[in-house]
Amino acid sequence: QQQQQQQQAALALQQQIDMSMMPAQHQEFPLPVPQPSVPSVAPMATSAPSIPPMNLAPATGATVGDWGQLLEKSNKLSDVDRERVKLFFENRINPTPAESVYRLKMHEERTVDHETGQVVKETLYLELDYNTFGFKKLRKTKKR
Questions:
Q1: Where do runs of H (alpha helix) occur along 22-143?
Q2: What percent of the chain has pLDDT over 90?
């Protein structure tokens, strides 16, 4: 029953992703999406070592509480990507099997550098690796 729920959640997310990538004039007639095959999922440990930021996480992944902390700064994260992150950490499901690595924009912030007076844009990304079920937090800084 749990596996069936996971498959339904993955299918729903796939349909949302497909709908978000379709041109507006075609969104009212979505094409059927084949149901992805989902490998059996082993239960995750209830505790895991703390995961240092900006590094590849171990293949064991983060616990439910740990991955929630990753999303504390997430003003650019869409609902579809938030669901993708949840499936990645809780169920170890890839809703788009054709993509083994997926990078999503989590947060964007503009500040003024007090020393130079330049506007600095900082963007945080989360990269999910479905081959190893590890992840990376990436930071991009751009001065204007």
A1: 64-70, 79-86
A2: 39
